[in-house]
Amino acid sequence: MGIKRKSRELIIQTLYSLLYADVDEYLQNLDLLNKYKEVLNYLCEESAVELKSNIYNHADFSLKKIIPLIDELQEKVSSYLGTRTIDSLGQIDLIILKLSMYEMLYEKTPPPVMINEAIELAKKFCSEKSPALINAILDNFKKKELTITTTIDKDNIDE
Fold first, then answer.
1. Which H or E run includes 71?
2. What pLDDT is attached to residue 148?
3. CB-CB contact of 117 with 5 (8 Å)
4. Is pTM, for the whole model, over 0.85?
5. Contact 102, 73 (CB under 8 A)
6. How many domains does the chain have?
7. Domain containing 24 — which CATH number?
């Protein structure tokens, strides 16, 4: 298993665990930033991932960036659900979607790579129907969100 795949698995597991953390409603993101490392360290210990490894470093880096964006990413996911509601998604499905959108937008992971990763992660962690749903949502996101960004970037290069 590759470094990024294992790192993504740890990110998903950490974010899922943090759903059940006791946090102050008004300082949620700050509290989560203070608590995620303990959860990540525990998960690494349980899965024999060294704390100085590239796997840990990638997960740690990404979590520091994702947690402050959680609300924004949730709104982004929600805007691509069509007739579904955010509550109709499984928690892990939602986390995979947030992670995928984060990586495509902020880490510039190529959409085909991230969509494939999201599908594989959904096969491992979610229900049978989740991979197809995640694929459809992320494909729609890619077509609408990332096509606009690419077009704008090309326009800026020509100037």
1. helix 70-79
2. 52
3. yes
4. yes
5. yes
6. 1
7. 1.10.940.10
